[in-house]
Amino acid sequence: MEMLSIHLDRSIDTPLYEQIYLYIKKEIINSHLSYGEKLPSKRKLSEFLEVSQNTIETAFDQLVAEGYIESKPRKGYFVLAQGDLEYIYQERQTTSAKNTSEDEIKYDFYPSRIDTEAFPFDQWRKYVKQMIDKQHHQLLLLGNAQGDVELREEIANYLYHARGIHCDRESIIVGAGVETLLQQLISLFSKQTLFGIEDPGYQLILHIVKHFGHQAFPLEMDDQGIIIEKLEKANPTLIYVTPSHHFPYGSVLSINRRNQLLQWAENKQQRYIIEDDYDSEFRYTGKTIPPLKSMDTNDRVIYLGSFSKSLIPSLRISYMILPKQLLHFFNDKLSFYHSTVSRIDQQVLALFMKNGDFEKHLNRMRKIYRRKLELVLELIKPYHPIIQLIGEQSGLHIVCEVRNGKTEQEILENAKKAKLKIYPITAYTATDWSTERPQFIIGFAGIPYKHLQHAFELFLNICLSK
Question: What is this structure's pTM?
């Protein structure tokens, strides 16, 4: 890029460096500056804008600190963040043209929302009261760095019966969200470690990996999952996959690809597969898909699970199963860490699982989400093939492809006018990859059933209107 045409208003109180910072940040969020694009040099930009190089440097430093750009020695500054990061994309929805506040949003189709009205408040309250008692005063102290034994035992028991995974409590690490666990995991590897990440996929992982100074590249996908031949050429050390329910398309990694992937990991020392068992609890047709970890006979799969979708996101309890060799590294290098999750919350969840309430809750939520999905499918059915569905067999969202000649931007503008928040598939890719027709990730779980028909009728209207 030769230059940035930034209008600086010297008559207002906002410092010039902040105006520059805000402009570049907005350009990145709105995808006007793409991932990997080189920014003008500090000298050239300062001359063009008629400001000091210190002003430019201060703006760039702030963007680097927030992860929007990165500095490469003797090369310059490059765009690092993308509009595909979920939290960035939420900001993007409110920064173009007139701002739309949260209060003005009628329906938010965010794919990670859950049905909060169905949470078993009474049972949870009972266990919280049970734990907040003098007889449990030891819970006021710091516990095991890997998480309380009681919870890890319940997780191991659940994984054996529900997912066919054989593991013991010693191999489980409990943490405050998958992101926290990934940060700990990444710190076990050298800066030269190359990570491969599904594209399209959960791009926040790519952002975390690069933020900690590691190399990462997108894994090319087709309808059977990641393409193994392309993986061999790139030669990463670790790859991150969602094999049982790919995010966002909901596809399942084929058995042939699973075997090839496990063989790939076994072919070289220090190769590992990070398996995120995303949305595994919610499948509406056929049996649940076995995780890659259940096929792992050579201890090469790092398994990630979470209670964010199955229970509540704000609980912030996730877990990771480490292969034995990595567990030794974890204990050697990260023994100074304390558990990032409240011990009281851990004990409450352990009781909730031990007494069968977690299983009851899952069964109830499957019925609730299935009912919602069936309504959505019924509403969309008359518009096939103009509205094509992808990934409707499982999970808490579907992907809708619009086949009437409308562009992604036109539909986004219509959504904004209708006060809807929708999420294009292009917001979840790290490359210039795009689809022939616009596709949108539409979460249905978080919208109350009584409002669901109206919400989807509005969505269909913005897709089909001229």
Answer: 0.76
Q: Give the number of other CB atoms < 10 A from CB of residue 12.
A: 9
Question: Which residues on adjacent β-strands are paired with residue 387?
Answer: 402
| Gap between the Cα atoms of 381 and 439, Å rounded | 17
User: What are the percentages of helix, strand and coil residues in the chain, rounded to 5?
Assistant: 45, 15, 40
> Could you tell me how far CA 126 lies from the centroid of its own chain?
32
CA–chain centroid gap for 75, Å, is: 31
| Tokens 């690490």 -> residue | 173
Element (H, E) at 210: helix 204-211
Digit-by-digit pLDDT tens for the chain (466 residues) are 567 878 888 888 888 998 998 888 888 877 778 778 889 999 889 988 889 999 999 989 888 876 778 888 888 898 875 543 434 344 334 333 333 455 578 999 999 999 999 999 999 999 999 999 999 999 999 999 999 999 999 999 999 999 999 999 999 999 999 989 998 999 899 888 899 999 888 878 888 888 888 888 888 888 778 888 888 777 889 999 999 888 888 888 888 889 999 999 999 888 999 999 988 888 887 677 889 999 999 999 999 999 999 999 999 999 999 999 999 999 888 878 888 999 999 999 999 999 999 999 999 999 999 999 999 999 999 998 999 998 888 889 999 999 999 999 999 999 999 999 999 998 888 777 778 899 999 999 999 999 999 999 999 999 988 6
Q: Kind and range of the H or E element at 203?
A: none
197 in helix, strand or coil? strand
Between the alpha carbon of residue 157 and those of residues 146, 151, 166, 172, the distances in Å are 17, 10, 9, 12
| Sign for the pseudo-dihedral over CA of 44, 47, 51, 52 | positive
Token pair 């004990």 is at which residue? 347
Taking residue 100's Cβ as centre, other Cβ atoms within 10 Å add up to 17
Residues 6+ apart with CB under 8 A from 151: 174, 317, 346, 347, 349, 350, 353
Burial class (CB in 10 A: 0-12, 13-18, 19+), 272: buried
Query: In this structure, which long-range contacts are made by residues 337-340, counting pairs with CB atoms below 8 Å and at least 24 apart in sequence?
Result: 337/145, 337/184, 338/142, 338/143, 338/145, 339/142, 339/143, 339/144, 339/145, 339/146, 339/147, 339/148, 339/174, 339/175, 340/175, 340/176, 340/180
CB 213 within 8 A of CB 206: no
- In the sheet that holds 318-321, the strands lie side by side as 172-175, 318-321, 301-306, 272-276, 238-241, 194-199, 215-222, 225-226
Comparing CA positions, the residue from 247, 235, 265, 243 lying closest to residue 204 is 247
Which of 110, 158, 200, 81 has its CA nearest to residue 352? 158
Token reading at 444: 């249905």
